[in-house]
Amino acid sequence: MTDLDAITLRTAYDTHLRPGLPDPVPDGVLVERDGPLFRVLGLDGRGLVTYRDLGGLSGTELDELIARQVAVAVERSEPVEWKLHGHDDPADLPQRLRAAGFTPEAEESVMVGPVAPLASALPVVPEGVRLREVTGRADLERIAELETQLWGEDLSGLADGLAREIDADPQSITVVVAEADSTVVSAGWVRYPAETTFATLWGGSTRPQWRRQGIYRALVTYRARSAGQRDRTLLQVDAGAESRPLLERLGLVAVTSTTPYVYTP
Q1: What is the pTM of this model?
Q2: Which candidate in 73, 91, 114, 226 could, as Cys together with 80 as Cys, close a disulfide (CB 3.0–4.6 Å)?
Protein backbone atom coordinates (compact mmCIF):
# COMPACT_ATOMS: atom_id res chain seq x y z
CA MET A 1 0.00 0.00 0.00
CA THR A 2 1.56 3.30 -1.10
CA ASP A 3 1.38 6.63 0.72
CA LEU A 4 -0.88 7.88 -2.06
CA ASP A 5 -3.29 5.00 -1.44
CA ALA A 6 -3.33 5.80 2.28
CA ILE A 7 -4.12 9.45 1.52
CA THR A 8 -6.92 8.38 -0.82
CA LEU A 9 -8.39 6.14 1.89
CA ARG A 10 -8.09 8.91 4.46
CA THR A 11 -9.94 11.28 2.16
CA ALA A 12 -12.69 8.68 1.74
CA TYR A 13 -12.83 8.29 5.54
CA ASP A 14 -13.11 12.05 6.09
CA THR A 15 -15.73 12.40 3.37
CA HIS A 16 -17.97 9.45 4.19
CA LEU A 17 -17.53 8.73 7.92
CA ARG A 18 -17.03 12.12 9.50
CA PRO A 19 -18.62 13.60 11.53
CA GLY A 20 -20.07 10.13 12.23
CA LEU A 21 -23.48 11.05 13.63
CA PRO A 22 -25.95 8.32 14.64
CA ASP A 23 -28.50 7.73 11.87
CA PRO A 24 -31.25 7.15 12.84
CA VAL A 25 -30.89 8.94 16.17
CA PRO A 26 -31.90 6.56 19.00
CA ASP A 27 -34.56 7.58 21.50
CA GLY A 28 -33.15 9.71 24.28
CA VAL A 29 -30.13 10.87 22.26
CA LEU A 30 -29.66 14.53 21.33
CA VAL A 31 -27.59 15.83 18.42
CA GLU A 32 -26.78 19.54 18.69
CA ARG A 33 -24.80 21.72 16.30
CA ASP A 34 -22.34 24.29 17.62
CA GLY A 35 -20.56 26.09 14.78
CA PRO A 36 -18.50 23.58 12.81
CA LEU A 37 -18.99 20.72 15.27
CA PHE A 38 -21.74 18.48 16.60
CA ARG A 39 -22.47 17.31 20.14
CA VAL A 40 -24.02 13.88 20.60
CA LEU A 41 -25.55 13.66 24.08
CA GLY A 42 -27.09 10.77 25.98
CA LEU A 43 -25.33 7.91 24.19
CA ASP A 44 -23.04 5.41 25.97
CA GLY A 45 -22.73 7.40 29.19
CA ARG A 46 -20.82 10.43 27.94
CA GLY A 47 -21.19 13.15 25.36
CA LEU A 48 -19.27 13.16 22.10
CA VAL A 49 -17.86 16.11 20.16
CA THR A 50 -17.32 15.31 16.51
CA TYR A 51 -16.83 17.15 13.20
CA ARG A 52 -15.41 16.82 9.71
CA ASP A 53 -13.17 19.88 10.20
CA LEU A 54 -13.23 23.04 12.29
CA GLY A 55 -13.64 25.40 9.35
CA GLY A 56 -10.35 27.20 9.98
CA LEU A 57 -11.15 28.28 13.55
CA SER A 58 -8.12 29.19 15.65
CA GLY A 59 -7.03 31.36 18.54
CA THR A 60 -9.68 32.97 20.75
CA GLU A 61 -12.59 31.73 18.62
CA LEU A 62 -11.41 28.13 19.00
CA ASP A 63 -10.91 28.55 22.75
CA GLU A 64 -14.47 29.87 23.05
CA LEU A 65 -15.80 26.86 21.12
CA ILE A 66 -13.92 24.49 23.44
CA ALA A 67 -15.18 26.37 26.50
CA ARG A 68 -18.78 25.91 25.36
CA GLN A 69 -18.30 22.13 25.30
CA VAL A 70 -16.96 22.27 28.85
CA ALA A 71 -20.00 24.32 29.91
CA VAL A 72 -22.38 21.70 28.48
CA ALA A 73 -20.53 18.91 30.28
CA VAL A 74 -20.73 20.82 33.57
CA GLU A 75 -24.41 21.61 33.08
CA ARG A 76 -25.22 17.94 32.40
CA SER A 77 -22.76 16.58 34.99
CA GLU A 78 -21.65 14.22 32.24
CA PRO A 79 -18.17 13.64 30.76
CA VAL A 80 -17.67 14.73 27.18
CA GLU A 81 -15.24 13.24 24.65
CA TRP A 82 -13.65 15.41 21.94
CA LYS A 83 -12.69 12.98 19.18
CA LEU A 84 -9.39 14.39 17.89
CA HIS A 85 -7.74 13.09 14.72
CA GLY A 86 -4.03 13.29 14.05
CA HIS A 87 -4.48 15.35 10.88
CA ASP A 88 -6.96 17.85 12.37
CA ASP A 89 -6.15 21.55 12.19
CA PRO A 90 -4.98 23.67 13.86
CA ALA A 91 -1.77 21.98 15.00
CA ASP A 92 -2.07 23.42 18.53
CA LEU A 93 -5.55 21.95 19.12
CA PRO A 94 -4.26 19.28 21.56
CA GLN A 95 -2.59 21.96 23.69
CA ARG A 96 -5.76 24.07 23.71
CA LEU A 97 -7.86 21.09 24.78
CA ARG A 98 -5.46 20.30 27.64
CA ALA A 99 -5.52 23.93 28.76
CA ALA A 100 -9.32 23.73 28.95
CA GLY A 101 -9.18 20.66 31.19
CA PHE A 102 -9.46 17.83 28.67
CA THR A 103 -7.34 14.73 29.30
CA PRO A 104 -6.09 12.51 26.45
CA GLU A 105 -6.81 8.79 26.58
CA ALA A 106 -5.00 6.09 24.59
CA GLU A 107 -4.29 6.91 20.96
CA GLU A 108 -5.69 4.54 18.34
CA SER A 109 -5.00 4.05 14.65
CA VAL A 110 -7.76 4.65 12.12
CA MET A 111 -7.57 1.60 9.84
CA VAL A 112 -9.30 1.35 6.45
CA GLY A 113 -9.31 -1.52 3.96
CA PRO A 114 -11.38 -3.47 1.42
CA VAL A 115 -14.21 -5.75 2.51
CA ALA A 116 -13.95 -8.31 -0.29
CA PRO A 117 -10.80 -10.27 0.74
CA LEU A 118 -12.11 -10.74 4.28
CA ALA A 119 -15.69 -11.42 3.25
CA SER A 120 -14.52 -14.32 1.08
CA ALA A 121 -12.95 -16.13 4.06
CA LEU A 122 -14.67 -18.32 6.64
CA PRO A 123 -14.36 -17.32 10.32
CA VAL A 124 -12.41 -19.98 12.23
CA VAL A 125 -12.74 -20.25 16.02
CA PRO A 126 -11.04 -22.61 18.49
CA GLU A 127 -12.80 -25.77 19.59
CA GLY A 128 -15.54 -25.08 22.11
CA VAL A 129 -16.16 -21.50 20.91
CA ARG A 130 -19.07 -20.37 18.76
CA LEU A 131 -20.05 -17.06 17.17
CA ARG A 132 -23.63 -15.89 17.56
CA GLU A 133 -25.53 -12.75 16.52
CA VAL A 134 -27.47 -11.21 19.41
CA THR A 135 -30.14 -8.55 19.87
CA GLY A 136 -31.69 -9.36 23.27
CA ARG A 137 -31.17 -7.26 26.36
CA ALA A 138 -29.68 -10.08 28.42
CA ASP A 139 -26.93 -10.69 25.85
CA LEU A 140 -26.20 -6.96 25.54
CA GLU A 141 -25.79 -6.75 29.32
CA ARG A 142 -23.36 -9.69 29.19
CA ILE A 143 -21.32 -7.75 26.62
CA ALA A 144 -21.33 -4.64 28.82
CA GLU A 145 -20.23 -6.77 31.79
CA LEU A 146 -17.36 -8.18 29.72
CA GLU A 147 -16.22 -4.70 28.65
CA THR A 148 -16.45 -3.42 32.23
CA GLN A 149 -14.29 -6.28 33.50
CA LEU A 150 -11.68 -5.92 30.77
CA TRP A 151 -11.35 -2.14 30.87
CA GLY A 152 -11.68 -1.67 34.63
CA GLU A 153 -14.35 1.02 34.43
CA ASP A 154 -18.13 1.08 34.51
CA LEU A 155 -19.29 0.48 30.93
CA SER A 156 -22.77 -0.72 31.84
CA GLY A 157 -24.23 2.07 29.70
CA LEU A 158 -23.03 0.18 26.61
CA ALA A 159 -25.99 -2.18 26.90
CA ASP A 160 -28.43 0.74 26.79
CA GLY A 161 -26.63 2.33 23.84
CA LEU A 162 -26.61 -0.85 21.76
CA ALA A 163 -30.23 -1.63 22.64
CA ARG A 164 -31.37 1.82 21.52
CA GLU A 165 -29.48 1.49 18.24
CA ILE A 166 -31.07 -1.88 17.56
CA ASP A 167 -34.53 -0.54 18.43
CA ALA A 168 -34.07 2.51 16.19
CA ASP A 169 -33.00 0.44 13.16
CA PRO A 170 -32.16 -3.28 13.46
CA GLN A 171 -30.58 -3.18 9.98
CA SER A 172 -28.02 -0.54 10.96
CA ILE A 173 -25.96 -2.75 13.28
CA THR A 174 -24.98 -6.40 13.81
CA VAL A 175 -23.78 -7.49 17.26
CA VAL A 176 -21.80 -10.72 17.54
CA VAL A 177 -20.59 -12.61 20.62
CA ALA A 178 -17.95 -15.33 20.88
CA GLU A 179 -19.05 -17.81 23.54
CA ALA A 180 -17.43 -20.74 25.31
CA ASP A 181 -20.26 -22.67 26.96
CA SER A 182 -22.22 -19.90 28.71
CA THR A 183 -19.32 -17.44 28.96
CA VAL A 184 -18.91 -14.49 26.60
CA VAL A 185 -15.17 -14.48 25.81
CA SER A 186 -15.28 -11.69 23.22
CA ALA A 187 -17.79 -9.51 21.40
CA GLY A 188 -17.85 -7.09 18.50
CA TRP A 189 -20.36 -5.17 16.45
CA VAL A 190 -20.46 -3.72 12.96
CA ARG A 191 -22.36 -0.61 11.96
CA TYR A 192 -23.58 0.21 8.46
CA PRO A 193 -23.64 4.02 8.14
CA ALA A 194 -26.28 5.37 5.78
CA GLU A 195 -25.43 6.69 2.32
CA THR A 196 -21.94 5.21 2.16
CA THR A 197 -20.27 1.93 1.18
CA PHE A 198 -18.33 1.81 4.48
CA ALA A 199 -18.95 -0.56 7.37
CA THR A 200 -17.35 0.23 10.73
CA LEU A 201 -16.09 -2.33 13.27
CA TRP A 202 -16.30 -1.86 17.04
CA GLY A 203 -15.46 -3.87 20.15
CA GLY A 204 -13.37 -7.02 19.90
CA SER A 205 -12.00 -7.03 23.46
CA THR A 206 -11.20 -10.63 24.48
CA ARG A 207 -10.70 -12.27 27.86
CA PRO A 208 -6.95 -12.74 28.51
CA GLN A 209 -7.05 -16.57 28.65
CA TRP A 210 -8.70 -16.68 25.20
CA ARG A 211 -6.35 -14.32 23.39
CA ARG A 212 -3.99 -15.41 20.57
CA GLN A 213 -6.34 -18.19 19.53
CA GLY A 214 -7.86 -16.51 16.48
CA ILE A 215 -11.07 -15.25 18.09
CA TYR A 216 -10.53 -11.58 17.24
CA ARG A 217 -9.65 -12.48 13.66
CA ALA A 218 -12.79 -14.65 13.43
CA LEU A 219 -14.93 -11.77 14.68
CA VAL A 220 -13.41 -9.47 12.06
CA THR A 221 -14.04 -12.01 9.31
CA TYR A 222 -17.62 -12.68 10.44
CA ARG A 223 -18.46 -8.98 10.47
CA ALA A 224 -16.75 -8.42 7.12
CA ARG A 225 -18.97 -11.12 5.64
CA SER A 226 -22.02 -9.33 7.07
CA ALA A 227 -20.78 -6.09 5.51
CA GLY A 228 -20.23 -7.78 2.15
CA GLN A 229 -23.77 -9.15 2.21
CA ARG A 230 -24.94 -5.53 2.44
CA ASP A 231 -22.79 -4.45 -0.51
CA ARG A 232 -20.34 -2.52 1.65
CA THR A 233 -16.90 -2.25 0.05
CA LEU A 234 -14.68 -0.64 2.73
CA LEU A 235 -14.10 -1.44 6.41
CA GLN A 236 -13.01 1.05 9.04
CA VAL A 237 -11.71 0.30 12.56
CA ASP A 238 -10.28 2.44 15.36
CA ALA A 239 -7.53 0.02 16.40
CA GLY A 240 -5.45 -0.18 19.54
CA ALA A 241 -1.77 -1.09 19.51
CA GLU A 242 -2.49 -4.81 19.97
CA SER A 243 -5.06 -5.00 17.17
CA ARG A 244 -3.23 -2.94 14.56
CA PRO A 245 -0.65 -5.61 13.47
CA LEU A 246 -3.38 -8.20 12.90
CA LEU A 247 -5.54 -5.77 10.96
CA GLU A 248 -2.57 -4.83 8.80
CA ARG A 249 -2.04 -8.50 8.00
CA LEU A 250 -5.72 -8.65 7.01
CA GLY A 251 -5.21 -5.84 4.51
CA LEU A 252 -6.25 -2.72 6.41
CA VAL A 253 -4.12 0.43 6.31
CA ALA A 254 -3.50 3.06 9.01
CA VAL A 255 -4.63 6.38 7.51
CA THR A 256 -4.49 8.63 10.61
CA SER A 257 -4.72 8.47 14.39
CA THR A 258 -7.55 9.28 16.77
CA THR A 259 -7.31 10.25 20.42
CA PRO A 260 -10.25 10.74 22.80
CA TYR A 261 -9.79 13.96 24.79
CA VAL A 262 -12.17 13.72 27.73
CA TYR A 263 -13.43 16.45 30.03
CA THR A 264 -14.90 15.09 33.27
CA PRO A 265 -16.89 17.56 35.39
Answers
A1: 0.91
A2: 73
